[in-house]
Amino acid sequence: MASRYTSLDEIHGIIFDAPDDSDDSIHSWDEDSNEEISDPHEAEDVQNQNLQRDFGNEEMHSTSEIRVPTQNRNRSSGKRQTVPEINWGDLDEVVNVAYPEFSGPQHGPVHSFDVDSEPVVFFDQLFTDELWDLLVTKTNRYARQANVNNWVDTTQEEIRCFIGFLFGTSINKNSQLDDIWSSDWVVASPAFAHFFTRDRFWALLSNIHLADNEKSVDRNHQDYDKLYKIRPMVTILKQSFQTNYSLGQNVSVDEAVVKGKGRNPVKQYMPMKPKKRGSKLWCIGCSCCAHLWDFQLYAGKEKGTAEQGFGTYTVGTLRSNRLGYPKCLTDKSLLKTMKQGDHHSTTTEGITETVWKDTKDVSFLSNVHSSMGQDNVSRKKQGGSVVAITAPTVVKDYNKNMGAIDKNDQLKKTYAIDRKSKKWWMSIFFHLLDVCRLNSFIMHQQCYLSWNSGPVEEDVAPRMDQKSFTSKLVKSLCGTYTSRKLWLPLFVTQFHISLCIRP
Ligand SMILES: [Zn+2]
Hints:
Elements: E1 6-7, H1 8-16, H2 58-62, E2 89-90, E3 108-109, H3 119-126, H4 129-145, H5 156-172, H6 190-193, H7 198-207, H8 231-243, E4 245-246, E5 251-259, E6 267-269, E7 277-286, E8 292-297, E9 311-312, E10 315-317, H9 332-337, E11 343-348, E12 351-357, E13 361-366, E14 374-380, E15 386-392, H10 393-401, H11 404-414, H12 424-451, H13 466-478, H14 487-501
Antiparallel strand pairs: 1-9, 2-11, 3-4, 5-7, 6-7, 7-8, 10-13, 11-12, 12-13, 14-15
Helix pairs in contact: 3-12, 5-13, 8-12, 11-12
């Protein structure tokens, strides 16, 4: 049986035009009323830390399924959707699964970096000058438009220090930003307080902007963009992530949620997720290193986003209530007789659909697995013993390659900025800053491997974990900047001048 080749256009069609699972109520509001940003770290939702997928866990496999319309849903018209009849047949061919040879560009950073380059070099490669300039000009413009009292225009040096400050306080885990300037030495952080006065820091955080409000299109206009507040950053980073890194052979397509309450025009409700309300991002990440390569904030279809140039094979989970799902695999008498490890498959036009019994039934759709070779997965039993459960190859392959977006999220979360804000787009701003930091760390890791590809005793660059990478990045971004007035140099300068003009 020949596998059906799926173009990336189709993948984009499937994931980015996916039907909305959520309450897509759009609120009418004016979010730019100069709201204050409240601090402390929001209590974290309970997250599933286990990257090994448990297929008995409904919420995990619901995050990574291939989306096709459900059978009884068509909200806009209220009519039942129809699809052409699909003839599913027996899967009687048993051959080994053969992946095509990978012919893409070499996996990893596109550009070469000098041996032992500083973390900030990697970060600046992704967070471009255009983005720094945008932060400076739009923040100054917004502050002037809002007539902020005693506003002093910011500079790129100050904004870099400000971003470094946010990263730094996330490693430091100050529970409340205001504690940094506390007179109580137990909770204060004088090293951070050196960079900004409290007033200047809050002035920057309250006025930081990426878009010009006066150029926004009326919300009733056809060109209105719900994401205009964050769109420039999304556009620049998407391009930057893709042009600076080449994916490996296996990629993972999944959704990520950026939690955030308030009047968010792209807020989604996802009852199966640990974070139930927030902004949803569709992401494409590299399975081997968790580099996030492409993402789209879910706010309806984007114009002109389809990628072209290479094809891909696809494996995903699929709910049994989706249109076109093979009826032979929903037969209750068949499903009842299945024991853990059993599976049944059917096929049509190069696509195979498999239902496999773990603690629950899980369905997989694949256009690469033209046979269902046997493999094993490990499962923990009560009492801690580990047993091997038989599983078709599609399960093992899915398990192995599907966790990139979760892994990226887990890695990022360790030192995430994660500050609460009343401005809905600020949570996305913080999220993208963290993704950029993590992607630059992953780039550094890949370079570390190539720098030290010789014998171990000839290693030319030290290994760096995420914490030490971020710490070095913070030091470079903050540099020697301080918003505090330094009186001593000024005094020396005046004294020097007075000496010069003395007759
Ligand atoms: Zn990779």
